[in-house]
Amino acid sequence: MEKYLEILEITKPHGLNGEMRAKYYCDDPNEIMQFDALYLGTQKKPVKLTSFRVSKNMVIVGLSGFCTIEAAQELSGEFIYIDREDVSLDENVWFIRDLIGLDVFDIDTDCYYGKVEEILQNAPVDVYCVRTREGKQLLFPAIPDVLQNIDLNERKILIRPLDGLFE
């Protein structure tokens, strides 16, 4: 498991004073404000937020040391990270990043379905996208009737598909 996790992806400048639009990768973007330490780019350079607000499924952020539109433009496409050790998760809560690539099996038949390639979060419940060995995409909802167990140590997910789910 990776030490640093993407929490923001800078997309473009916002205004003339160095603020930037960013996609957020967490359930509640306001949780980003709780972190004392954030890290910028592949070098994981420590940065501080100077401004933060939610705007239409995005956030607008200002970072210390970046106060012009030119500086903000240079950061387009960069990620801002958090340190995994700075987060405590409740039981049965996982980082999406840790679930990508897990093998998915039927809990009753041990049938192998494929690997998790994406988790969609724009529905009332998360939807797991699984890619089979044949390249087909399977989708299943993260509801208790289907999602039976996630074992990060074994790198697998056990499910019980509802009748007709993958047909």
Account of the protein in words:
This protein is mainly beta and 167 residues long. It has a seven-stranded antiparallel beta sheet. The chain has a six-stranded mixed beta sheet with strand order 11-10-9-8-13-12, with no helix packed on it. It starts with a strand and ends in an 8-residue tail after the last strand. The model has no long low-confidence stretch (mean pLDDT 92). The chain has helices at 69-74, 96-99; strands spanning 4-13, 20-24, 38-40, 45-47, 49-55, 58-63, 79-83, 103-106, 112-120, 127-131, 137-141, 147-151, 156-159. It is elongated, with a radius of gyration of 19 Å.
Protein traits:
single chain, 167 residues, mainly beta, 7-stranded antiparallel beta sheet, 6-stranded mixed beta sheet, 2 helices, 13 strands, elongated
